[in-house]
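Subgroup meeting minutes
Present: P.N., E.W., G.H.
Scribe: E.W.

1. P.N. recapped why we're keeping a running log of single-chain structure predictions: easier to compare across weeks, and new members can see raw inputs and outputs side by side.
2. G.H. added today's entry (191 aa).
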Amino acid sequence: MGHVFTRLAGHGMVLMPHWPYRFERLPDEPHTVRVVRGLPDGPVWTVVRPGEPVEPHEAVDVADGPAYDHWEIQTSVVNLRWPAGFRVDSPLDEGDRTPFYLHGPGEAAIFPQGPVPRERCADPESLVAPGQTLLRQDGQSVELAYEHDGEPWWQAHRLVPYGPDRTLILTAQCLRTHADRTREAVDAALS
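Output recorded in log:
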């Protein structure tokens, strides 16, 4: 896999993971990050606490960074706030060009796509796949319903202008019972 540049920045630090990686928040310490790297012999991990020194580790490189009071997922294309209740995962397939996935409750997945030419998203119907039903749309989002393995699912595409003629698509999907929580996570990521 070529280098996929995704890092986590905030609290005076920048965390640059080694692929394949996962960022997880500790349940009782929302600003503390466990960085897990999957290796053939099993996972290795380290814990990073803002304001504490970090020993060199094979899961992550740590450098000085911005003093945000939150964690921000940064890529060469988009910066998003890391929403609470979600972990950040690298793609596991070496051919997957998605820079990262946010995984959360209700089998939720949130991920960026593109940027793509703006005309590709001009018609909201172009974002509706076979078997999906359009629930709601406005100028910046499309929400859909569909069945998967006999379960009701929800999907949304949030359209984010990118330069003069391109659009970044932030896609979210989950079991329909978790749609409100996943929609809130998308809103938090874009805030």
